[in-house]
Design brief:
- By secondary structure, this protein is an alpha+beta fold.
- It is 28% helix and 26% strand.
- It has 2 domains: 113 residues, Aminotransferase class 4, branched-chain amino acid transferase, N-terminal domain (D-amino Acid Aminotransferase, Chain A, domain 1); 160 residues, D-amino Acid Aminotransferase, Chain A, domain 2 (Alpha-Beta Barrel), CATH 3.20.10.
- It contains 8 helices and 15 strands.
- It binds 4'-deoxy-4'-aminopyridoxal-5'-phosphate.
- The site of 4'-deoxy-4'-aminopyridoxal-5'-phosphate has 14 residues, from helix 6 and strand 13.
C-alpha cells in the first residue's frame, strides 16, 4: 500500500515525506504530538485529541498554524486517502526549522505532520492472560519542570523507563512521580480495582490525562461501577484485586504482576473484562 503522508496541507509518499534537519522537533524534541485510533474509518474522539494537542502547544508557547476545524477536516481526509479503516494516526507539530541554538523564536514555520498507518498491538496472548510490569527507577517528569500533561516530542524519561521494562522482559513499566506515588506507565494510564471500587491516579499525580482513561471512567459510571481518582502507592497495586492499563494503542489490557508480586488472581479480573468489552463496543459506535 502506498502511503500518503500529510505535511502542512500537502501529501507525500513515505520516501518523500521529509522535514529539515534544522527542525527543532529533531534538534531539541521541541514540539507536541497525538496518537489516535481509527475504527471503521472514523477517528475515535478526534476532537478531544485535538483539544489536548492545542493545550500541549499552548503550554509550550507553540502556535499551531491552523485551526481545530481545518485540521479535523485534514485528518479525516488523510485517513480516507490512506484507506485506513482500522489503524493508528500519529499527529505531530514541530517548532519548525530554526538556527542551531535553543531560541524557538527563530523558528517561524511549524510543521504539521499526519501519518495514518497500521498499528501493531500487543500480542493477543497478553490480552487473554494479562501483562507483567516492573517499577522503573526512572520517574515521570517533575510537574514543576515540564507538566506531564504536555504530550511533547521529548519522551526520553519514558523511553528510559521502557528500556528498563524491556530489559526485565516486560512490555510496559510502571513510573512513579517525584513523591514516590504511582503515576502511570510509559505510554498507558493505570487503574486498579479493590473491593469493587475502581481507582486511578488523579491528573495531579503527574500523568498524561489519557483520552482512553477518561472514556473508561465514563463507561464505569454508565455501568454502575463506582470509581475514584486517588493517590496510589505500589502497595495499593500489589494488594489490588485487579489492575489494568489504558491507552489509544493498548485500549484496555490487564496487568497481572508488578515487581514479581501477583495481582489478585493473576489473570484478567471481571471488572477489567467488562470494561474492555464495553470499550470495544464504544469505539465502534
Ligand atoms: N500516558 C502516556 C505517558 C502516554 O504517552 C499515553 C498515550 N500513549 C497515555 C498515557 C494514554 O493516553 P491516551 O489514552 O490518550 O492514548
Amino acid at each position: 500500500m502506498s502511503q500518503h503522508i500529510y505535511i502542512n496541507g500537502e501529501y507525500f509518499s513515505k520516501d518523500d515525506a521529509k522535514i529539515s534537519v534544522y527542525d527543532h522537533g529533531l534538534l531539541y524534541g521541541d514540539g507536541v504530538f497525538e496518537g489516535m485510533r481509527a475504527y471503521g474509518g472514523k477517528v475515535f474522539r478526534l476532537e478531544q485529541h485535538l483539544i489536548r494537542l492545542w493545550e500541549s502547544a499552548l503550554s509550550i508557547g507553540l502556535k499551531i498554524p491552523t485551526t481545530i476545524e481545518a485540521l479535523t477536516a485534514d485528518i479525516n481526509e488523510c485517513v480516507e486517502k490512506n484507506s485506513l479503516d482500522e489503524g493508528y494516526i500519529r499527529l505531530i507539530v514541530t517548532r519548525g526549522a530554526g538556527a542551531l541554538g535553543l531560541d524557538p523564536y527563530k523558528c517561524d514555520n511549524p510543521q504539521v505532520i499526519c501519518i495514518a498507518d497500521k498499528i501493531t498491538l500487543y500480542p493477543d496472548e497478553l490480552y487473554q492472560n494479562g501483562l507483567e510490569l516492573i517499577t522503573a527507577a526512572t520517574i515521570r517528569n517533575h510537574p514543576a519542570a515540564l507538566s506531564p500533561r504536555v504530550k511533547s516530542l521529548n519522551y526520553l524519561n519514558n523511553i528510559m523507563a521502557k528500556m528498563e521494562g524491556l530489559k526485565a522482559g516486560c512490555v510496559e513499566a510502571l513510573m512513579l512521580n517525584h513523591k514516590g506515588e504511582v503515576a502511570e506507565c510509559t505510554g498507558d494510564n493505570i487503574f486498579i480495582v479493590k473491593n469493587d471500587l475502581l481507582m486511578t491516579p488523579p491528573v495531579e499525580a503527574g500523568i498524561l490525562e489519557g483520552i482512553t482513561r477518561n472514556a473508561v471512567l465514563e463507561l464505569a459510571d454508565e455501568m454502575g461501577i463506582e470509581s475514584i481518582e486517588a493517590a496510589l502507592t505500589r502497595h495499593d497495586i500489589y494488594t489490588a484485586d485487579e489492575c489494568f492499563l489504558t491507552g489509544s494503542a493498548a485500549e484496555v489490557i490487564a496487568a497481572v504482576k508488578l515487581d514479581d508480586r501477583q495481582i489478585g488472581e493473576g489473570k484478567p479480573g471481571p471488572i477489567t473484562k467488562q470494561l474492555n468489552e464495553a470499550f470495544r463496543i464504544l469505539v465502534r459506535q
